[in-house]
């Protein structure tokens, strides 16, 4: 029978199916971090259990960590306790931890791929909704809650009902100044923040195949923002080239064996989806959000819809029907698991090189990992940023969710390359405009929302 | 562990008549630094409920003494956004056993079920009627019967059935959870690992 990519991987991981209920799904890789794991470890202890397969878990500290002076003890007491507890839990249960100071430390969804831990055909979970990022490699990857983190720690399995399947086909070539972040913001604006609830989404089509691995990760990362359980892209030569020779990728004969398995991982021509959507890549423009959910996005050259939710606009201090271009901004945040990889930093560096940030702008660049940071410095990007008036900080989630001290002050506007613009997401009463690294870069230079196409 | 089981919940309800309530609103990230599951209820809907100086916002429904009970009624697409289970913990910790909406985000629904907080999905019409009934008379009783999978609106007698998968229903009725089940089949999991090694 013809199968979709999702079905092929799913079927290989079902241990058993309960009559009238969910399936027992075997999990290959489990990522954990300091915020959603402590209660799970506690739960295990309460039941008198050990971690069942500690070698299939990888831990890092990212959500809470400061992005300056990481060599010093964390100032915030609660954050420090959470990170300390992660260290204690990992050492007690034999879990590999890439904590602060480790050369592999970084945002969990950045380090998994860059270390070659994330591989095609795997089932991958993490107590964080943006686990969908790993789907870019042709894996079933999704976020789970803390009770489920405990379940996977205890049994390496989860109880899951099979989601419905959707395919989003993006065909054609992207226009000038349009990058993968714009594709996904465009799709979410089109189908809404709940348009894919209940579905697992496969992204396909020539525009997706033409993307680099890092650009594909940006797309899968935000599939959760349209309500999807996860997103995925069939692995191809781009995927294999990216993985080859990474720290934890298979080598030698094992590589050849895996490669032949991975090459089978694509949707069969006659396979059926519950829903299909077609997108014309040429119609996509640089995008920006104006509201308080990621579905409230428009072209940077567009106008805020007249029917936009008044509660959101009131929070954002924006007017229905007004142009978004020319809106003054205060902060620029380049970072998060959506856009903090080396390609994102290169894109920004290339644009700001020889330019200078506007005086009203505070600009933060937060690399996704120690490895990204190291490479940026090796390539001299830090110098370019400095000359342009930007500051390259140390890796972590930072202003994406503002759990550390990187908060946007109340009422201020921030163009952010992250994935959520909810009320208070970047700090109480902070106002977030989601955009691509390019659109963020041009705003940093002009001090306002601008169309990057006017500057290329 | 049968003390946490759910059978019939009959209560007045608190109406949060807002759509797309995301988990960042239910419990803002800055309150996620605790390492236990308890105590999150105080910060439920923190930024809607309190001013920056900690004084209550009288306009928010949770601060209105007219509305109480163990049932929370919310607008469509409740619990979207972050996977933080702290959202379900906060609602449960604040004394709710049931959340009613016309649509729940996937991860939130799972998290709620794993914490013996019952998400009841009703039709758009039923939800509208529920909001109207409670606002009209805050003493309106709602009855949720898990075994029968029914919800009844006291004031009008209007009744609807709701879906829940058989496995989860059995878990909730008996007060056992997924981990108990998975542990019971650990030998099957090990033989699966052998076959796939
Ligand atoms: S960067 Fe933001 S979205 Fe990504 S894992 Fe961290 S907090 Fe979550």
Largest sheet of chain B: 4 strands, antiparallel
Q: Give the helix tally of chain B.
A: 8
How many H/I helices of chain A? 15
Please give the order of strands in the largest beta sheet of chain A.
Answer: 5-4-3-6-7
Uncertain spans of chain B, ≥5 residues at pLDDT below 50? none
> What is the average per-residue confidence, as pLDDT of chain B, rounded to a whole number?
94
Give the ordered list of helices and strands of chain B: EEHHEHEHEHEEEHHH
- Categorize the overall geometry of chain A: globular
Largest two-chain interface: A-B, 65 and 51 residues
> Helix coverage percent of residues of chain B?
25-40%
N-to-C CA distance of chain B: 36 Å
Summarize the structure in words:
- The complex is a heterodimer of chains A (456) and B (197).
- The longest helix of chain A is centred in the first third of the chain and has 17 residues, at 77-93.
- Chain A is of the alpha/beta class and 456 residues long.
- Chain A is built from 15 helices and 19 strands.
- By secondary structure, chain B is an alpha/beta fold.
- The model of chain B has no long low-confidence stretch (mean pLDDT 94).
- Iron/sulfur cluster (SF4) binds at residues 62-63, 107-109, 128, 130, 336-337, 397, 400-401, 418-419 of chain A.
